[in-house]
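Justification of computing resources. Each target in the renewal requires a structure prediction run like the one illustrated here; the chain below, 575 residues long, is used simply to show the kind of job we budget for.
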Amino acid sequence: MSELEKKLNKRERYKAQMRPFEYYPELESLDFENLAEGDRFYLQDFGIFTTDFLEDEFTMRLRVPAGRLSTEQFQHIAAIVTEHDLHLILTARAGIQLHGLETDNVLDIFKQFNELGLTTWQSFGDNIRNIVTDVYDGRGEHSEIEVYPLIMQMQEHILKNPRYVGMLPRRVSIGISGNRANVSSFFANDVYFALAQKEGTFGFNVYLGGKNTEVAQDANIFLKPDEVVDFFKAFVEAFYLHGSRFSRSKTRLFYLLEDIGMEGFKAYVQNEFAKPFESAGERLLEKALFTPHEILSDGTHAFCYQTDFARLDADELREIAAHAKSHDAEVRIGIDQNLYILGLKDKETPFKSPKESATVIACAGNLCPYSFWSIKNETSYLPLKKINEHGLQVGFSGCVKGCGRHRHTDIGLIGLKTNNFGATDGGARVYIGAEHSDGTSVGRQLFAMVPLQHLNKTLSLIISIYERSEHEDFEMFSRNILNKFSEEFLSLWFLASLETDQILELPENKDIALGSDERFIYEKSLLEKQFPSADVLALIDGDFHDAVSTLSKKLWTIAGKDPHYKPPIKRLNVR
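Resulting structure tokens:
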């Protein structure tokens, strides 16, 4: 092995031994009961996932470009789910993820799906993941360009291309929207083609380098619709050739841009595009509040079926698909993990959504081996009524991987375990303040850890203070109020409010640079004015860190029992 090969991360060494496309024929004779580490690595490129510590349990992901499937395909999926007793969830990339597959049926299920005109290829692994758009693409009142044909051309270029299957330096997420307003933001994507206009022509501005903890940055490129696919091809080749293949933690596009700069990477893409780039046009992106019932551009109706936080059962799929088919309507999956029926003649539908989940994005939770939470079951810790009333965007991730896009929403949560507050099953790291709709900023950390049994009260306080501000939406509240204060000041303000059982409106802030001595003096004076009798103020000395730590432990160390806690079953030792 050469010195260069030794520096490659483990996945790259597997790729050097055998390309995933060359491995594919081995699936037919694979012993799924005795998989090697390399087998598990290669299987991801074809949508099959397992782990070292759950070797006999498999996950399969269906790639659903633009979230579009025929009603017949939904019915077929329901039949397979029923036959094999699988668990189905919708993903935050408008795909379908199936859990509960076993060693004796995983290959059969894989064949069934891929023979139905569905595909599982490149839905995991180092690939271009499912390409997403707005669920109302081509049909909503905000639509200017239907992008579905472009998505299908992009997918065709990479899907079974031996050069790219599993061979990129890291996964790449692509979002494109031809709508002036979208149900969800796309700035968490590595590449985002945003609707724009230049010299009277509709097209797309390009944004690069987004991920779950960062917003995509303006590349200052405008593309006409017929240039998008060629740019996509150039981008994929440039990333394939020049992306880092060494430290796994630094292989995303974000880090390449950090290393060589936006202009450096654009030069690589330009070399493959072989056509001068036009500078960006005027981005056409406005914030809109979408309701469960929307009127489409042709006068027909759309209905959002709000899932049980991304969970669906086979009966739901069958019923929704049958209703859509009988009404000559279509069903689409949104990146908000809900199902949409488009083209209904009237507003009425025979179903009622099982949950009010339209603005809550949740990861797979306990269906994923990395999650600390049973996310879908622990939404009882959220003030859902208030969240729904205000249309607050909430991202709910079970671990730091961030599949719930927790830093691209109004309120973001990461599931954690800790013993800092006593014997507790878990808690949440809390983020607020993202200006996510237009890609201005991601959310900032408010609390490193809130025990689950205190989470509802804490989030309710945040929402109550937002209500007192009388801002039109939470992003405006973040822009005008929250993001003008330091993170630790906000933490202490909310903690002191909890301790004193007050709902105190945050004041309009002075224009003082964050992090400056003047800012600290000003923020300290606000705390002394509003909470003059609080003991914790004596701990403020140069910063707020000790005060935040002391007060959070005082409030949240567990003295009583969690009302949601179920004690483990005691088992007798029988000899």
